[in-house]
Amino acid sequence: MTFVWAFLIGGGICVIGQLLMDLTKLTPAHVMVILVCAGAVLDGLGLYEPLIKFAGAGATVPITSFGNALVHGAMAEAKTHGIVGLITGIFEVTSAGISAAIVFSFFAALVFRAKG
Where is the secretion signal located (predicted)? Predict the structure, then answer.
C-alpha cells in the first residue's frame, strides 16, 4: 500500500504542476517556483513532514521537497545558531543534492555531444 500512496501523492503533485501549465499562461519556470514555494510554506506550517511520513518518495521526489528542505534546514540551524543559521542551514541541507547535480551534469556534458 505504501507504493500506491507514493504514486498517488507524487502523481497528484505532478498533476497540479501540469494543470498550472496547461490552464494558465504560466511558464514552466513560474510553475517550478510556485511548487518550491508551496513546499516551503507547507513545511513552515508543519504539514510537509506528515506528508513525507505518509507518502514517502511520493512527497520527497517532486520539486516541492526542495522547498521543504530549504525551510527545514534553515529552521533547524536557526535553533542552534540563531539568525546566521537561517542562511547556513539552507546551504547545509541542500548542498549535497545541488553538488551532485553539478557533477553529474558535467560528466554528462563530457560523454554526450550537444547538437546545435
Answer: none
Tens digit of each residue's pLDDT (9 = 90 or more) over 2-57 = 899 999 999 999 999 999 999 999 999 999 999 999 999 999 999 999 999 999 99
Q: Is the pTM of this model over 0.85?
A: no
- d(CA 89, CA 70) in angstroms, rounded, equals 8
Residue 116 covered by a domain: no
Q: How far is CA 6 from CA 15, 20, 97, 111, in A?
A: 14, 21, 21, 33
- Residue 105 domain-assigned? yes
Would you state the cell numbers that stand for residue 7, as one nine-digit string?
504514486
Summarize pLDDT for 68-107 with one digit per residue, the tens.
988 988 888 889 888 888 888 888 878 877 888 888 999 9
Grid coordinates of 102? 553539478
Helical H runs in the chain? 2-23, 28-44, 48-55, 57-60, 64-81, 83-111
> What is the count of structural domains for the chain?
1
